[in-house]
Structures are given as structure tokens and as C-alpha cells.
Amino acid sequence: MRKMLFLFCVAVLVLPVSYSYGFSSKGEDCSKCHTLSKDEAAELLKDFIPNVKVLEVLTGPLKGVWEVDIESGGKKGPVYVDFSKNHLIAGQIFAIKDKKNLTQDRLSEINKVDVSQIPLDDAVVMGDRNAKFKIVVFDDPE
Hints:
Elements: H1 2-20, H2 22-26, H3 38-45, E1 53-59, E2 65-72, E3 75-82, E4 88-89, E5 94-95, E6 100-101, H4 102-110
Antiparallel strand pairs: 1-2, 2-3, 3-4, 5-6
């Protein structure tokens, strides 16, 4: 009787844990059931980040997390919201195996400057104006 009670308790404790990982073993994409719009994200973040503008909402680098690209005070960057929409994560996420800072990679991508859009009409050109590679230097004369 004790053995059966023990097995029943173990089954009750183990089955919910194994079931919670059921989707990942079946290849299901959790973001199909969970959604987060830009408006929802802005509403969630407005009390934490002043004058927040949500640029984009993507599936995050971790399971169960949305990556929300925002702009506030002229600065752009990613923050993370869990699928339950109960937790906000503002900080760096590292991939231990690859030794990469995933947040920094995304921050660089968001803030990338399209050099072709920089007006060069009044620029001082040194060398061939039609060169394959160009270096743009900004300087303040004062």
C-alpha cells in the first residue's frame, strides 16, 4: 500500500512537469497561440518606460519570451516580455554556448545607420568620390 501511495505521489508530481514541455518535443511554435501586438506592448510598458514607442515585436531569443524593440528619449533598444504578459525583462541576454551577447547584437541591428542616406553635398571629399569603400568622418570644428 505504501509503495502504491509513493508511486501515485511521484506520478502526480512528475506528470505536470513533463507535460509542460510537451510542445517543444512536438516541434510546436508557442508564438502561434500567444500574441503580443505593438499596442499591447506599449500599454504594458507605459508605466515603466516614459514616452515609449514600440518599434517592433518579435519572438525573443528565449522560449516563452517576446522581444519588444522600443524607442524612448531618442534611444532604441530591446526589452523582453514573457508570453503570460506578467513579467518585463530589461537587461542583457547571453548565449552561454556561443559566448554571444544577444541583446547587444540586436541593439546594434536596431541602431544601424544606412550610410547611403547621409547627405554628402557639402562634404569634403578626399580621394575618389566613386570609390567602392567609403569612410565618413564627422567632426565638430569648435
